[in-house]
Amino acid sequence: MKLLTVIATIYIPLTFIAGIYGMSFDTSSPLNMPELHWRYGYIACWTRMIGIGLVMGVYFWRQGWIGPALPPPDDNLGQHSPTDS
């Protein structure tokens, strides 16, 4: 169930962005999104979507929800125990 939650959490924002950009817009209205007329608007949209997916994927991976969990940080770095010679 946890994996399904992660997959849904990653894809819901991407689906929302794709749904907004997939609408038919009246290009004569000044209230439309200005990026529809940008030369690199399509690439900017894809870059934003890939970035969102990667950031969320890395976050869930670091939290241990997908893939192997990272070990907790060692609190005793540089400290020697009395049993060390």
Q: What percent of residues are in strands?
A: under 5%
> In sequence order, what are the helices and strands, one letter per element?
HH
Helix fraction, binned, reads 40-55%
Number of strand segments: 0
| H/I helix tally | 2
Distance between the termini: 49 Å
What is the SS-derived class? Answer: mainly alpha
How would you portray this structure in words?
The longest helix has 22 residues, at 41-62. The chain is 49% helix and 0% strand. By secondary structure, it is mainly α. The chain contains two helices and no strands. It has a domain at 1-6 and 38-64. The model has no long low-confidence stretch (mean pLDDT 78).
Q: Briefly, what is this?
A:
The protein is mainly alpha-helical and 85 residues long. It is 49% helix and 0% strand.
Keywords:
mainly alpha, 85 residues, elongated
Outline the fold blueprint.
Blueprint: H1 2-21, H2 41-62
